[in-house]
Specification:
With about 375 residues, this protein is α/β, with parallel strands linked by helices. It has a single domain, classed as 2-enoyl-CoA Hydratase, Chain A, domain 1. The chain has 18 helices and 9 strands. Strand 1 and strand 2 form a beta hairpin. Helix 1 packs parallel to helix 4, helix 3 packs across helix 17 and helix 4 runs antiparallel to helix 16. The mean pLDDT is about 95. One of its GO terms (cellular component) is cytosol. It catalyses: 3-hydroxy-2-methylpropanoyl-CoA + H2O = 3-hydroxy-2-methylpropanoate + CoA + H(+). Its EC number is 3.1.2.4. Pfam families: ECH_2 (PF16113).
Length: about 375
């Protein structure tokens, strides 16, 4: 089975629309190294091809665009049960190169973010210049539950959300719907699922011009109309509904006080209760790491963000907490991770600081040439 299906749709004025479909419906289109290596070289080709008017990146089926990275093979790499001893470094390096390239892609790139979008899927989606969300979109960065941190550019986009929402989402793994995504800056257009086929048809019919402005004008016109015909299905934004509560909970200088405020909140609201549950069960080390990550990355450039995240991800792959979280939730599925630190109070800050120490010089960093 081909990991990505590439389809060319003939369009007006000699142009074509490229559709790249993550093709692993059974795994909810989890992002594999093979997918990354198939997609990455295509981006410069599409940029250079004057016939390419726009690119659509989507996932097979209706359940998910992409439910995360290839966690099972990453786990094998972390515990030494993999033929490639460098798999973890290779995977994250090539994933972040691809994510960065998507951020920098100048032609219209439409990501159809319907269904589940988590982790590595959000890395593909966040940098696209047209991020479509639907009534089925369920988007989250659940890394605190597996002893990791929101990577794939999370340092960039979480820090650019309104108020203190980014930190809240990182610490609580809270899910976002389509309206939430539009509010926090992860979704550009809301289009109902039944218009998925119509999107391609209408893009094919655009009277395409030749320069970038014309290409973007054509895509934006189509998406704007599809959105106007869909808005009656837009759900209520949970983030906007709870915005003042979120900011109040995050309004503490120290992490221990933030976590205490979340756990002390008395509420009947299911969305907030799920946030509390994620904090109760999550890795204390991951919470400390996320808190430090977002502070350190606040003023980094996009290139610096991905370079810093590669350091963190490689070190997390070696430190054990990430592997233990994956084991408990996804491999053995016993739901009982044996976290290194049992509470925030016992987290060793020197251990956290060590995760930020690069194993490379600046010149030798695998992402030095971004």
């Amino acid at each position: 089975m081909t990991a990505i299906l590439f389809t060319e749709h003939a369009a007006a004025n000699g142009k074509k629309i490229i559709q790249a479909t993550l093709n692993s419906e059974k795994s909810l289109n989890a992002l594999t190294l093979e997918m990354i290596e198939l997609l990455a070289p295509k981006l410069p080709e599409w940029e250079a091809d004057e016939a390419v008017a726009a690119v659509i990146l989507d996932g097979a089926g209706d359940k998910a665009f992409c439910a995360g990275g290839d966690i099972r093979n990453l786990y094998k790499g972390m515990v030494g049960d993999n033929d490639n001893p460098d798999f973890v470094e290779t995977f994250f390096t090539e994933e972040y190169q691809l994510d960065h390239a998507i951020h920098c892609f100048t032609k219209p790139l439409i990501v159809w973010g319907g269904g589940i979008v988590m982790g590595g899927g959000l890395g593909l989606m966040a940098g696209a210049n047209y991020r479509v969300v639907t009534e089925t979109s369920r988007i989250a960065m659940p890394e605190v539950s597996i002893g990791l941190y929101p990577d794939v550019g999370g340092s960039w986009f979480l820090n650019r959300m309104p108020g203190r929402v980014g930190l809240f989402l990182g610490l609580t793994a809270s899910g976002l719907n389509a309206a939430d995504c539009r509010y926090v800056g992860l979704g550009d257009r809301f289009v109902s699922t039944d218009k998925r086929g119509l999107l391609i048809e209408q893009l094919q019919a655009v009277e395409w011009g030749s320069d970038l402005e014309d290409l973007h004008h054509g895509v934006n016109t189509v998406l704007r109309q599809l959105e106007q015909d869909s808005l009656e299905q837009l759900p209520e934004s949970q983030v906007l509904k709870h915005f003042d509560t979120i900011n109040a909970l995050m309004d503490h200088y120290e992490l221990k006080d933030i976590v205490a405020a979340i756990l002390a909140l008395e509420t009947d609201d299911r969305w907030l209760q799920k946030a509390q549950g994620a904090v109760k069960a999550g890795s204390p080390a991951a919470m400390a790491l996320i808190f430090a990550q977002l502070k350190r990355s606040k003023h980094l450039s996009l290139k610096e963000v991905f370079q810093a995240e590669l350091v963190l991800s490689l070190n997390c792959g070696k430190a054990g907490e990430f592997a233990e979280g994956v084991r408990a939730l996804l491999i053995d599925k016993d739901g009982k991770p044996d976290w290194r630190f049992k509470s925030l109070e016992t987290v060793d800050q020197n251990w956290i600081e060590g995760l930020f120490v690069s194993p490379w010089s600046d010149a030798d960093h695998p992402l030095a040439q971004l």
